[in-house]
Write the structure tokens for this entry.
Amino acid sequence: MLLGKSASGQLINLAEPWCRKDLERIRKTELFSCPTCAEKVQLKLGTKRIWHFAHFDISGCVGLHEPESMYHLTAKRQLYNWLKEIHPFVEMEPYLKRLKQRPDLLLRKDSAIHAIEFQCSSIPDEILQKRTRTYRSHNIDPYWILGHTRLSNKSDCVFRMDDVAWNAIRCHGKNDPYLIYYSPRTQQFLQLQSIIPFSSRTVFASLDTQSLSNASFPLVTDLDTHRFPQSFIQPWKNLLQQTRMYIHLSRDPAVYSLKARFVEKGIPASLFPVEAGIPSKFLYWFQSPAYVWQSRFIIELIDPVPVGQSIDFQQVYRYFLNLLDTYKLKRRFLTIKTNSHISFAIMDYLNWLALLGVLKRRSATQFLKVRDIIYPSTIAEANQKLGEILKTISTN
């Protein structure tokens, strides 16, 4: 940690500019304690590592949840100095007694309070979610910034997001999810935006980079609000084609259940509808892949309806939601501040089915089925039709 307290009561913030001689002099005459738990700490003034205070035993400190690496300490110091230049009301490692939490930084800006947490190591879901909920319950905005080392990209637009990332996600305009990373080595922010999940861990996204010296708080970039960028089309097609080819190897319980349902219908699982796997705007509410839950939605709720009959959104939504466990489908429970809900994903999908000519929208919540779903006869045919669908989605 970067904040320590001398025996005389002086708070020493090592993110501030200190002279080594002054610190060495104080260390010779003073003992130091943790401002949070009051236990003794050591002032470490090495030549290879960032200066910091270290507990003799961290287990008794209620403010520290995990040991801090040099990577973490360096980033925290850089972020503190960056914020201090643009906003005077920033605190280093304040212990919030009512919350029993100690954010890395606390920023008071206008009438808002932001708890800024730099997370570079793995942390259990329940702890991160609890800290987020506790901040919000006290009208404090939890602002999670992930270490750049946690950013994992498979290609220019395909990334891996683990549970820590999903729980640290924020929203532009309350509906467009984005994620912030920071690299203390390059002193750059990296922002994943236009996030569209393909599966529970794989997402499509655009990456924006901004230097620390040019950044302001809160971090704002030119958000690409296009629903499905052209650059995503071919990689999405490729992943869905691979999915079709290797679906028989999947061990996902929801896929097992879906394959059994396809057997009942006499259809190979690899030939699931081309209308399933559509990159809907609100896919982040599902942990199960889009092709799985959308295939199940088509089989159970669209196929049985005769052409010319109405479909009521509220009815199909409630029915589908009640059977998620039966179908082994998984929801994603997020801590993001948003005005959307899993129902938005269902409605958005119905709207796409209307655009693709399967349904026709009659009112805000009523649709008319105008044609049956036509299942592909080969994977090649499915891939060709998918390309046409994705182009349609990309231009709307």
About this structure: The two ends are 50 Å apart (CA to CA).
